Batch of 2 targets.
Target 1
Amino acid sequence: MATLTLSRLLATCGLAVAMLAPLAHAERLKDLASIAGVRQNQLMGYGLVVGLDGSGDQTTQTPFTIQSIAAMLQQQGINMPQGTSLQLKNVAAVMVTTALPAFAQPGQLLDVTVSSMGNAKSLRGGTLLMTPLKGADGQVYGMAQGNVLVSGVGAQAPGSSVVVNHLSVGRISGGATVERSVPSVLGANDMVRLELNATDFSTASRVVDAINSRYGPGTAAALDGRVIQVRSPGNSDQRVTFLGQLENIEVNPARLAAKVILNARTGSVVMNQSVTLDTCAISHGNLSVTINTEPQVSQPPPLSGGRTVVTQTSQIDIKSDPGKVIMVKGGASLSDVVKALNAIGASPQDLLAILQAMKAAGSLRAELEII
């Protein structure tokens, strides 16, 4: 009886441990992949901002601003006399940019960013005149106009100036109106394609298994390590519902490839959790050389006929910090790598050289990428 009770107790404890064990990390399919064809398109336009308080382009240095003003006035029926030289300070030539979201329809409002392309000091208080926004195909997909909102502020006086934030870039909320929609081919031939954010054959296989286990075999098929083809309903309303459910399917993605990112400009080093090491020894020491040169004047005695000579005296100081050697065991995890490198006092710039040397020696089991 005691043995039976003990067995039941062990079984109960085992079940409790299993319930308390951390679950595998699952992500929504929406976070792992995107639907082919559902994308935004970049729009750009050239325009003029008027109404500035003397902070516009210096027209003598930006002839394109004068040409734009003359062309705009000509469209309004105003012809400038030949040889007229405009000296304006309240106009600035700007580039207007925005993104046309997927399925955008005519009449929809978009936020636009207005950026000075001349030498205007500030766009604060200016008004953007009607500006066509074109896509990569040269077609007009929107029109922008409105008052520019600049978050920065500046003040200046003779000999001094103060500027807070950026004054040559502003934003217009709802400043553009969509004039043309982009045709969508979503669901052509009753098929949709999922595109993984990162190419990974293991993750693609797991996504296919998750979709087929929910909607039945043959619903999804992987075309390669990135693209997955999924059968969808032919009715548009049913297709939208299907895609909404599809995006919320949870998938356990495969572990990413071991990678170390080095930024040589800032000294930043980023490693993912898959980075490991083979057994290796790391030595670190600093050698600094200081050269100090001071001028010295050699003055001859009076009436000796000599000349005053200026000589340079240099002092060279060599300082070598004691090196340290540390042993890193094979199969070390990311935390072990960080602890080992911190133990020898390596700075971010030192890490760049150390990791490159470890990769060359074959001890760093990770892809080394320098940006």
Target 2
Amino acid sequence: MQLNLDDIIEAQKILDQTIQAKHRVDYPQILEELKLALFTELAELANEVRSFKFWSIKPSSDKSVILEEYVDGIHFISSLSIAMGVNTDFFLPDNIPIASKKDLTIIFNKLFSQMNALSDLNGIHDWFREYLILGYQLGFTYADIYQAYFKKNQINFKRQEENY
């Protein structure tokens, strides 16, 4: 299936411009911060999914909490893509199955291990693609991701207005 993220990318550009103007920074100055923020959001997502917590019987967080953490990552990988001029048209496999706990742990480890690839165009594109696939493997549809992204985008604008 082909995903067109033009609406998300355009909304992220506007949010980024707002933040950058307010804080007097630009993409070249904040690339490392964006990467670390993405790393942090991926860790927060893994923590909510809990697939690696073999020592705990507590289930994953509510699906809405996981989706909110997931779209936090969409914000930062979108910003990196914009900053580096990465093409954000993606072809994903059809009928992506929901992943098992073990598979999710492997997927998270793969994404963490590929964080160094976020320094080049192909690496960012491939990482973004894998992150989108993860969303489906977590049980989200594109409509879920799209709606949650725009809901969080509004929250992020409000946070800027309130000096978050």
